[in-house]
Amino acid sequence: MTKQKKKITLSSVLTGTFFFAAGCLTTYYGPSIYSVLKNTFSQPKISVVMSTYNREQSIAGAVESILNQTMKDFELIVVNDGSTDKTQEILEGYAKKDKRVVILKNEKNMGLVAGLNKGLAAARGKYIARMDDDDKSLPFRLERQLLAMDTYPHIAILGAGFAKGDEQKPTGKPKIMNPDEVELNTYFSSGLAHPTIIIRKKFLDKNNIKYDEKFLYAEDCGLYKKVFENGGKISILKEPVLVFGYVKKLKKPNNYGHTQAESFKRLQKEKLSPFFNAPYEILGAFNGTVKRCIMLKEMVKVNKEKKILNQDILEERFTNMCPQKGEDAIFLVHPNWESFIIFDDKKENIKRKDVPTEIAKIIDHSDKYITIKWQKYPTPETFIKNHNDEYIFSEEIIIHTKEGKVYEVEHPLWKDNIVIKKDKTFYRLALPEEKGKVMNETKTTLTIKWDNWPSIEVFKKDNKNLIFLKEIKNKK
Question: Rounded to two decimals, what is the model's pTM?
Answer without folding.
Answer: 0.74
